[in-house]
Amino acid sequence: MRPVSDLRKMATAEPEINSNSCKSEEDNSEQTDLEIVSPESYIKHPLQNRWCLWFFKNDKSKTWQANLRLISKFDTVEDFWALYNHIQLSSNLMSGCDYSLFKDGIEPMWEDERNKRGGRWLLTLNKQHRKYDLDRFWLETLLCLIGEAFDDYSDGVCGAVVNIRAKGDKIAVWTTDYENRDGITHIGRVYKERLGIPMNITIGYQSHADTATKSGSTTKNRFVV
User: Under the phi-then-psi rule, with left for phi > 0, alpha for psi from -120 to 50, and beta for the rest, what region is 15?
Assistant: First the structure.
């Protein structure tokens, strides 16, 4: 029988082969960790512009501007999705409410310096569209904006608005200059294609000036696609 002192030494001693083996495993673990950690896991993907999401609730006891509230600003892909996934869908909003997404520094109103000489591509939806198409169309509109989908004419885009109304909802893409025919028609064609609107259905572009001074219930279209 081995002396008790020898057994204690054996119990507490760490064989060289096990020590090397552990060291090797630690090294491998460190290497594995280095391989797993990637910039993609902690670096956000920046957008070309910073965007502001606004919410309008029609409280008749307040002025129009008092009813307009800035919800949040974002300038990365990840922050956009974090915001979008934590707000109500457009189809769940009460009648009279709006969402507006505009470039930082541009307010969602005709009077803004970047908007007052502009206009909008307007998409009018009926009640059936609210159930089946409204949320899809609005999300695609947002993606067109933040993704700069309109090529060289994306700089001419100010923002977009979705209006929830009892008679029918509306989605509009606002641009900064209603006289820029080439830019406006390009934006309209791309937008119509991205929404998957059939060729036999047209959408119209209206200037804010015409909308503000219209005498009837409709505004004439400057352009159609």
Answer: beta
Rounded CA gap, 225 and 5, in Å? Answer: 94
Tell me the three-class secondary structure of 53-79, residue by residue.
EEEECCCCCCCHHHHEEEEEEEEEHHH
44-65 tens-digit pLDDT? 999 999 999 999 998 888 888 8
Three-class secondary structure of residue 207 per DSSP: strand
The residue behind tokens 């541009």 is 106
How many Å apart are CA 195 and CA 199, to the nearest integer?
11
What span, in angstroms and rounded, lies between the C-alpha atoms of 100 and 80?
14
- Say how many C-beta atoms besides its own lie within 10 A of residue 126's C-beta: 11
Task: State pLDDT tens for residues 79-122.
Answer: 999 999 999 999 999 999 999 999 999 999 999 999 999 999 99
d(CA 122, CA 110): 15
pTM as predicted = 0.80
